[in-house]
Design goal:
Layout lengths: L2 H7 L3 E2 L5 E7 L3 E2 L12 E2 L2 E8 L4 E5 L3 E9 L2 E6 L5 E6 L10 E4 L4 E6 L5 E9 L8 E2 L2 H7 L4 H7 L2
Antiparallel strand pairs: 1-2, 2-5, 3-4, 5-12, 6-11, 6-13, 7-10, 7-12, 8-9, 8-11
Length: 165
């Protein structure tokens, strides 16, 4: 399997952040606004899921959402997930199948933290899944502004300059 095969076979479409995706699940049931934390502007589906594919040279720029997001590794090679927590702590998770070198099959990005993703050096592509609960809604999505991130987290300027606009 290569990236082109997966894009065609899974009917993936270009994603606004970069790469390719397809929504595979959106729960029919919804959580009412009054049952959600105040950060949500309205009701949400219980959960959503997508396939997401990034090829070498592509990235998902720094952004954040209002829900927890669980990333699952499916195929290809290592994907790096860069996280900047609200207190400024930075870490990088290696999503992949080589658990002997510290990769993991699954990782949850906590709600409201900044994160970006890119295939690791030497990875031709990474196919992952993203499950969001409460379900993803574009009104919960915030793309980072490079100047804002640099002002808040100057100690992480190298990664911000590379993965923010």
């Amino acid at each position: 399997m290569n990236a082109d095969y997966l894009i065609n076979h899974l009917s993936l479409q270009p994603h606004p952040e970069g790469g390719f995706f397809k929504e595979t699940y959106r729960a029919n049931e919804r959580i009412l606004k009054n049952a959600l934390p105040d950060r949500f502007s309205g009701e949400r589906n219980f959960s959503t899921a997508i396939y997401y594919l990034l090829m070498q040279g592509e990235c998902s720029l720094f952004h954040r959402i209002k829900s927890d997001e669980c990333w699952h590794f499916y195929a290809g090679q290592t994907l790096l997930i860069h996280v900047i927590e609200n207190d400024g702590n930075y870490y990088c998770i290696k999503l992949g199948q080589n658990i002997a070198v510290g990769e993991t099959f699954q990782f949850v990005i906590p709600a409201t933290v900044w994160f970006a993703a890119e295939p690791a050096t030497g990875s031709s592509f990474s196919l992952v899944g993203c499950t969001v609960a409460p379900g993803f809604d574009f009104s919960d999505f915030e793309m980072a502004h490079k100047a804002q991130l640099l002002s808040s987290f100057p100690q992480h300027s190298d990664i911000i300059n590379r993965l923010a606009r």
